From TrEMBL:
Chain segments annotated as transmembrane: none
Keywords: TPR repeat
Keyword Iron-sulfur: no
Record-given protein name: Tetratricopeptide repeat protein
TPR repeats by residue range: 239-272
Length: 580
């Protein structure tokens, strides 16, 4: 029996090995392999059950590691932490392996300083383990770019010193583990000799490309570009390298070479992320042909993320009809338009509803629940006069019967809306007629939590706005819904009156000017034809056009202020407000 289990396990026939092992769970060896096979097959609930039984029968450090990993797979992080800390204190033969798993768990739950300390101790014991170094350098990669860059520079310096030692004959054939992967460590994978060639390949293909990207994230653009350029020959077959290089080229306004870099990434790996990053570039450029190509690539977001659509079946049916007959497929049909992205996108793309209303017999529009009341009341008001949306029905929930379904952000593609058409289409939101108050009212909005970990930086400090507006004779009104801040007494806080987007719309009725970051309220303010100043950081979203010449193709009346230097920006902001 055990021979069969051994045979199937070591030949990677894990399903068969598990099947036989489960027949003899009273045998501790069979139970061990049932645990390992469940682990290999990613059957998380079985892994946890068998690991618990194994640990009860034989509470060794090895079995404790298995159980801790099973806890992590099942999101039982506290149980894993308690167990790993218990065994780490024993300081037995698996002490380093236990500490490595503990470091990875700390990183997973966001305790990065604890992660860093453990990795530093492990590197003192095993200084030539390049994969350990790589994991150390990546601890802060997503959370603190400055710390991550410092760690990468530390690793680069270590590699240079190591190469010098090898050249001088001071270091010969030091070995390092090939992987930090727990499953592979259990099987004691082969070790490799550390050589100058191996170190240089490691730097040029794994570490320096990450350093170049970190320089980009820290706005050290010239350094980032130079490093990316020097690494091209070593990364000809890395799609990730070319995608990141494309982003830096795009930010440098080198759009043509950015396009080629994205195409290179796609030629290596046809991944959705590369496709819609390319779509962003093409739509950012504001040229009709580019926009048409960008619309097609933008649809890839739904092929790879079916959870973003309410039904992949209905979307695919729509795509098939469009591929066959084009826009003619939707004439005299009943179309469901659903919203798959943020509030801002819903407002921005809602102007495309006018085009679909012209083509189809009926449009069933299902906005996010928080926007239902706003769109319903606005459509009712608009149809009292112009009837532009007479065949549009706003729904509170998704219907069962319709001919085709499409996401609202796909309307430019399915309705063949050209770039020049966007600003000509009417929004289904009626512009406000503001009273001419003696003291002008300025609305302010400066923070969204959605921007914290995004590719583009959007948020500003409240102090920046208060300082810029401190000597102006206007009444300031805050629409800020989230964030940790304290408003001065002189600023009215209208966020307390807002429960949904219809409330936001009504509270904007007497605002003379809106100063806001790239956010949903910016789109609503612009739809209401309120003079709106959109504050942008230097690396901004494609929706606001080229970096060197920002312009919104959806909202041509938007006053865009790119803040590169806050002192100068305050003066520019004051000038813009006075002009308005």
């Amino acid at each position: 029996m055990l021979n069969q289990i051994y045979y199937y396990y070591f030949n990677s026939h894990y399903e068969k090995c598990l099947e036989i092992s489960e027949k003899y769970l009273d045998n501790i060896d069979a139970l061990t392999y049932a645990t390992l096979c469940s682990f290999k097959l990613s059957i998380n609930d079985k892994t946890l059950y068998y690991a618990e039984q194994l640990f009860i029968k034989n509470p060794t450090s090895f079995n404790g590691l298995l159980l801790a990993k099973a806890y992590i797979l099942n999101s039982k992080f506290q149980e894993a932490l308690d167990l790993l800390q218990k065994f780490a204190a024993k300081n037995d033969a698996l002490h380093d392996e236990i500490n490595l798993e503990l470091a990875l768990l700390f990183q997973m739950i966001g305790k990065l300083e604890e992660t860093e300390k453990i990795f530093q101790n492990l590197l003192k014991k095993d200084p030539y383990n390049l994969n350990l170094w790589k994991s150390y350098a990546e601890i802060y990669f997503k959370k603190d770019f400055n710390k991550a860059l410092k760690a990468h520079e530390e690793l680069c310096a270590f590699c240079i010193q190591t190469n010098e030692k090898i050249k001088q004959g001071l270091l010969v054939e030091k070995t390092h583990s090939n992987t930090s992967n727990f499953q592979d460590r259990l099987q004691n994978k082969t070790k490799e000799n550390i050589t100058i060639a191996k170190i240089e390949e490691f730097l040029n293909t794994q570490i320096l490309p990450q350093k170049a990207y970190l320089l980009f994230k820290l706005f050290k653009i010239e350094q980032s570009l130079a490093l990316f350029q020097s690494l091209q020959e070593f990364n000809q077959h890395s799609a990730q390298f070319w995608q990141n290089y494309a982003k830096v080229l795009e930010f440098s306004s080198n759009y043509q070479n950015a396009y080629h870099a994205y195409q290179k990434a796609l030629s290596l790996h046809s991944h959705a992320t590369y496709k819609f990053d390319l779509a962003y570039l093409l739509m950012r450029m504001g040229v009709e042909d580019n926009f048409e190509e960008g619309k097609k690539f933008y649809e890839s977001r739904l092929f790879y993320a079916h959870n973003e659509t309410f039904s992949a079946y209905h979307y695919n049916k729509t795509m098939q009809a469009f591929n066959k007959d084009g826009i003619e497929a939707f004439k005299n049909k009943e179309i469901l338009v659903f919203c798959e992205q943020g509030y801002g996108d819903t407002i921005m793309y809602s102007r495309c509803l006018e085009k679909i209303c012209q083509i189809t017999s009926n449009v069933l529009f299902a906005p996010q629940s928080a926007m239902y009341e706003m769109f319903k009341s606005q459509i009712k008001i608009l149809n009292q006069s112009k009837k532009s949306f007479k065949n549009l029905k706003v729904l509170k929930s998704l219907p069962k019967n319709f001919d085709y379904a499409m996401p609202i952000c796909s309307l430019p593609f399915f309705m063949d809306i050209k770039l020049t058409e966007l600003s000509q289409l009417k929004t289904p939101i009626k512009a406000h007629h503001r009273a001419q108050d003696k003291i002008k009212k300025i609305g302010i909005f400066w923070f969204t939590p959605n921007a914290i970990d995004s590719e583009t930086t959007r948020n500003f400090e409240l102090e920046f706005l208060l300082d810029a507006l401190k000597d102006t004779p206007y009444e300031l009104i805050s629409f800020q819904m989230q964030g940790d801040y304290k408003l001065p007494d002189k600023i009215e806080n209208r966020a307390t009156k807002i429960k949904n987007w219809n409330d936001t719309l009504n509270n904007l009725s007497n605002i003379d000017c809106m100063i806001t970051i790239d956010s949903a309220i910016a789109h609503l303010s612009l739809a209401l034809e309120i003079p709106t100043i959109v504050l942008l950081k230097p690396r901004f979203d494609w929706r606001w056009g080229k970096f060197e010449q920002p312009k919104s193709f959806f909202w041509p009346k938007a006053k865009i202020l790119v803040v590169k230097d806050e002192k100068n920006a305050k003066a520019e902001l004051n000038k813009l407000i006075k002009t308005i």
